[in-house]
Amino acid sequence: MVANKPLVLVTGATGFVGAHVVRHLLELSRYRVVIPVRSMAKSSYIKERYASEIASKDLEMVSVADLSAPHALDDVLKRFQPEYIVHLASPYFTTTNDPIKDLVQPAVGATRNVMTSALEYGAPALKRFTLLSSFASVVDLSKNPRPGYTYTASDWDPVTEEQAAENGFFGYHASKTFAERLAWDLHDHGLNKELPSPPTFGLVTLCPPMIYGPPIHYAPGHLMPKSIEELNTSTARLISGITGKDPAFTPRVATPGLPAWIDVRDIAKAIAGSLTLDPARNERILLCGGVDYFEDGLGRLRTQNISGLGDPGDKCDPSNHFDIDRTKMRDVLNLQETIPFEKTVEDTFNAVRGMSLV
């Protein structure tokens, strides 16, 4: 370990995206990483996977039972004084009888607590706060598929709390929209709407569409999924789509009417860039790897005589859908090229096949 390596605090580190972010940050060999976990016992696989990094103090875990509890991170920030915070922890599912309780409140509560701790105890060390938001906070569902329109960082999902209470789909959109708006409000105006001066740290929010890619947050003997349905939400949707087993999609796309996507490994790169690149400070940045239907990603697999592939449907005609402005992604984050959909689909399928689920 290099003693003066800057420290990154990553919430949600044990999830689908978080696992890739932690791995990427450690592979860069430029950072130390600290991750809050709900249960040290249930995180034993992290100790096994990163034994050398833990031994060198490049990775540390700290117990935080409930990130949505007030002041949950106060002591962590006081103790570690991180230079960077990456806030990923937020629920992602759409099947619920109480979207406000299960989706909106946890997302907003966790964001409020992490940002509050950052404002109260981040100085003088904290330089950048990156929030992983979502294209769900950008898109106007009432206007889908909106051909010819290009969404930019100035667009906001107009979802209301009344809509959020209707079902999990609207609830998820509301959870991301409300949480991101809160982050900007707290950063720009302070805890009591009165900031004598702007905070010393910059805020970056990243808004990706569906995130696909090989899951690496599972480990043999540690919460391994027993079926496709037990996979993380986006991986389950992708596998169900390319095997033709999900009748809900007509045509079967990433999400009905929302065919945009990006690879989780590109998300990790984007987050790493957001921490230190000067132009990213106080920016809202849309991310996108492409606009594709599931069939568009099956080229490599279809040449390998793999059994189990279904007939997901037609290939995508981008002119039938909105587009996403990628200017900031390329110019601000220097993410000029992203992983092709065929590579994403192939790697995801092979990872899930390695779990004997397909």
UniProtKB/TrEMBL annotation:
GO molecular function, one term: oxidoreductase activity, acting on the CH-OH group of donors, NAD or NADP as acceptor
Pfam families, per database record: Epimerase
Segments crossing the lipid bilayer: none
The NAD-dependent epimerase/dehydratase domain, residue ranges: 8-275
Record keyword Disulfide bond present: no
Oxidoreductase found in the keyword field: yes
Keywords linked to the UniProt accession: Oxidoreductase
Family: Belongs to the NAD(P)-dependent epimerase/dehydratase family. Dihydroflavonol-4-reductase subfamily.
Protein name (Swiss-Prot/TrEMBL): NAD-dependent epimerase/dehydratase domain-containing protein
Species this protein is from: Exophiala spinifera
